[in-house]
Every structure is written in C-alpha cells, then in structure tokens.
Amino acid sequence: MKLRLHLFEFEDQPWFPNVVRAGMLDYLRFMITHLHTYRPIAPLLAEGLRRTGQTQVLELCAGAGGGTEDVLQALQQELPEARILLTDLYPQPAAWRHIEQQTGGRIAFVPEPVNALQVPAALPGFRAVFSAFHHFRPAPGEALLRDAVRAGTGVGVFEGAGKHWWELLLACTVLPVVLLCIMPFVRPFSLSRLFFTYLVPLIPLFTIWDGVVSILRMYPPEQLLQLARRADPDGRYAWQAGKVRHPQGPEVTYLVGWPKGQ
C-alpha cells in the first residue's frame, strides 16, 4: 500500500486523558514484546552502533517502551554491552520504571519530556524511533532526521507493520478481541486499565481507531528515503530503507542512516 493519509489520531492530542493513553500504550507494549516484532531489526541496530562507535540506543518517542526489552535481548546477542535509554515528549515513568527493574538498569529512562525534533546534546546514542514515526507529518518527520544529521549521530526509524490492506482488517477484527483477552495479564497491574477496558471501554475503542489510522499514516520505504534525502541535502549520510520480517511476527518497515565513512 503506497497510499498515505494523515488522519486524526487520539493519542496525539495533548488533551487526551493520560490514563487512557497509558492503557493503550501498555497494550501495544505487551503485543510487540510477545510477538517479538522488532527482533529482526537487531542486526541493523548493531551495525549502526558499531559504525557510530556507540553502545547506547537513544529511543525517542518511546511511549510505554513497547518491545524494548525484546530488542535489547536480541541486540545483546551481538553487542553484550548495549544499553537503551527511553525518552518521550509525554514520559511514562510508571511503565518505564517497571522495565528498568526487569532489566537490571540496562534499560533506563529520562523522566523529563524530550522533544525528538530538538534532542539535547547531553543525550548521546544511536537514535531510534519504534512504532511512532507515523505520528509525524512530512515536515516534522524530516526535521527529526535533520536533527540527527546535524548532531552527526546515527538514526533509525522502525514501524511494526508492512502497510498492507489486510493489516487494516486485523486491526478492526482480530486485535480488539485479543486486547479484551490479554488486558488482565498486562504488567504492571492497573485497576484503571481494567476499568477503561471492560466497564467504560475507551481503551478498546480508541485502540481500534488509532490502530487503523497508524497504518494509513505509515510511510512506505520509498517515502522514508525521500524524507532522509531532504534532511541530508549534502549527502553526508548513508541511508537504507526496506522491510524485514520475523518468521512468526509482522513485517517491520525501516529506515536507518549514519555518517558516510563510519
């Protein structure tokens, strides 16, 4: 699917209730982790870290940290010293603290808001965006990549879907049923999450809408490369984009780049 529609997504809105947003992100984190969605991109991340001389992945727009533990586990098979630092414009310290404890501090977080378009120089690492780049229109998406080029750091964009029509059907039918079945098992446990899933089902309803819109908003590899080249008009970076797939999980659409000669 090459069509891209930037429709309204509830999670993007600053007025959207944080308790509902957190529940949606917790569900996304659970699914991405248990489907091992991002395991196939571990070699790309490892190459990016080696080429840029980094051991830390700086995750931007981290949400609830969906799949980060799984990514780290796969990444450490190639780079045992690898670590991940979570950041977001809307930090999720409760979810992140749980991840930090589960990984013995190998995944840490910044509790203050971090703007992905203006990353502070005090936060080093190979910049990575998981399941979130579709939130950006072309101009701010280009600005995110340009900020990485300006800083001379590696950058990667990863979306846990292949942008197919059948994925829209799944988002409307199968995945809502899965959500209703798994919510009691999502950790850390939250009564508010259960309340807004079963008694006042805002989490399932908004998840269906935002899930469909997320797929429609996704950039295919060709458009990701166009954004990268506009962000790097002097051609200082080596860019590549495409799709990879886990044998038992969905496709991952990706863009990675790092300074040439590294």
TrEMBL record:
Q: One GO BP annotation here?
A: methylation
Query: Where do transmembrane segments lie in this chain?
Result: 168-186, 198-219
List GO molecular-function terms, semicolon-separated: methyltransferase activity
Q: Which InterPro entries does the annotation name?
A: SAM-dependent_MTases_sf
UniProt keywords, alphabetically: Membrane, Methyltransferase, Transferase, Transmembrane, Transmembrane helix
- Source taxon at top rank: Bacteria
Please report the name of this protein according to its UniProt entry. Class I SAM-dependent methyltransferase
Species per Swiss-Prot/TrEMBL record: Hymenobacter gummosus
